[in-house]
TrEMBL record:
Chain intervals for the UniProt region annotation (Disordered): 391-410
Record-given protein name: FAD-dependent monooxygenase
Record PANTHER family: 3-(3-HYDROXY-PHENYL)PROPIONATE/3-HYDROXYCINNAMIC ACID HYDROXYLASE, BLR0106 PROTEIN
Keywords: Monooxygenase, NAD, Oxidoreductase
Record domain FAD-binding: where: 106-318
Organism field: Actinoplanes aureus
An example molecular function term from Gene Ontology annotations: monooxygenase activity
Pfam families documented for this protein: FAD_binding_3
């Protein structure tokens, strides 16, 4: 088959890897408008479920992702006027730049052609292909070109957010809420290598305007945010990539849905088909799981139209609960000031329950982990679990010492 992927993000590159693994005879080209090694965004978080899938579909790239990922072991919640609280839970983070580097390298090893600085402006410009995968992100040009057919809808969320980086390395996943004269403003931050953390700032639009972000450029906006969050940054800078190209990175999240995902031999995948609010940190995972499902559907040997329909049904069913959780979660942040007067522990509990799916056993566990002895036990349990997972990893050749199963730095 001749396959063209438009977009070299996690979805496009991972699909190219899996399709080539399924049939080395496929001729696969990935078109990416950016130069090699250039991307937007900072680190992304993910959990065991994605790692398990990655090891199942391609142990080689999974091993590299795992080795480059950083693990964090709890959530820390800081809010003006409240003592710091801790919530149980662990996860992983990885720089988007490093993730794409791993996937591009793996794709090239398998014989995929990646054409950088190659921006598609119109589908009719493409050379003939049996399958065109539109993995060109949330603002997909291909989806827009056939907007009516795909039945795409874009809903713009109310809050303002900006995706920044910082050279302050946070100890763990940290939520920080600051009360200013203009209202509450907060960050979600986590380390993703030994030099850098992701730092996403969010606030209501009235607070954003009252703080002057509607007029400040990227550099002055960062300075203002550094002042607001000074006590969390240890004197380190916030970095907005937009400072180099003008404008600022402040945005409103765009929730994309599409009624249909295929049109002849063209199929949507990843953010071009659906976006999921960053408040639950799952968009990359869902994009890569789309790639897994599409590669399997194509490899089934069924008629292409049947395969694409099966892919769409399978993925829409899998997405639904996470999209509900993402909606509930972003709505919680839109109403955040209503929770601000809660005492520290109840505030943290409300935050962790924002997805609307927090089971009672986790609440009990959370309350228990406020106790230092219980927290120590929990750490031991997590270490044992990591050690046992390292032993259980399928088809991998890594050898890691107990307690070092997941390296801490990229
Ligand atoms: C603030 C924020 C934080 C996030 N945090 C997380 C997180 O912690 N965990 C997580 O799992 N997800 C997170 N996400 C979501 C995640 O970034 C996306 O869901 C994911 O990148 C989707 O992958 P994709 O490959 O579908 O699209 P993209 O990553 O957007 O890739 C699309 C690619 O297509 C290229 N392209 C676009 N148009 C064209 C064209 N016409 N021609 C050629 N190339 C083109 C682009 O340059 C890009 O490289 C976050 C998102 C945001 C906004």
């Amino acid at each position: 088959m001749r396959i063209t992927c438009v977009g070299g993000g996690p979805a496009g590159l991972y699909f190219a890897v899996l399709a080539k693994l399924a049939d080395p005879g496929h001729e696969i080209t990935v078109l990416e408008r950016n130069p090699a090694g250039v991307t937007w965004g900072w680190g992304v978080v993910f959990w065991d479920d994605l790692l398990d899938d990655l090891f199942r579909y391609d142990p080689v790239s999974a091993e590299r992702i795992w080795e480059s990922a950083r693990q964090w072991d709890e959530y820390e919640v800081r809010a003006t006027g409240k003592p710091v609280t801790h919530l149980a839970g662990y996860g992983f983070s990885l720089g988007r730049h490093r993730l794409l580097e791993i996937l591009a390298e793996r794709a090239a090893e398998l014989g995929v052609r990646i054409s950088y600085r190659d921006e598609l402006t119109d589908l009719s410009d493409l050379p003939p292909a049996d399958l065109v995968v539109a993995c060109d992100g949330a603002r997909s040009r291909i989806r827009e070109q056939y907007a009516e057919h795909f039945g795409a809808e874009v809903e713009v969320a109310r809050n303002k957010y900006i995706w920044l980086g910082t050279t302050h390395v946070f100890d763990t996943f940290t939520f920080g809420f600051e009360k200013t004269e203009a209202g509450w403003i907060w960050f979600h931050a986590y380390p993703f290598n030994d030099r850098t953390s992701t730092f996403i700032v969010e606030c209501q639009p009235s607070t954003w305007a009252a703080l002057g972000f509607d007029t400040l450029d990227a550099r002055d906006g960062c300075v203002k945010l550094q002042e607001i969050f000074a006590e969390h940054l240890n004197g380190k800078a916030l970095i907005d990539h937009r400072a180099e190209v003008g404008g600022t990175g402040w945005l409103n999240f765009r929730r994309v849905t599409a009624h249909r995902w295929d049109h002849g031999n063209v199929v949507l995948m990843g953010d071009s088909a659906h976006t999921t609010h960053f408040a639950i940190g799952s968009g990359t995972k869902l994009a890569m799981q789309d790639a897994m499902a599409l590669a399997e559907a194509v490899a089934s040997g069924d008629d292409l139209a049947v395969a694409l329909e099966r892919y769409e049904h399978r993925r829409k069913a899998a997405l639904a609960p996470l999209q509900r959780a993402a909606r509930a979660s972003s709505a919680w942040f839109e109403r955040m000031p209503e929770y601000a007067d809660l005492p520290a522990k109840r505030f943290s509990y409300a935050l962790s329950n924002r997805r609307g799916e927090y089971p009672m056993w986790r609440f009990v566990l959370h309350m228990a982990t406020q106790n230092i002895v219980a927290r120590t036990l929990l750490r031991w349990t997590l270490s044992a679990r990591r050690w046992s997972r390292a032993r259980r990893r399928p088809n991998t050749s890594h050898s890691v010492a107990a307690g070092q199963a997941i390296p801490n730095t990229a």
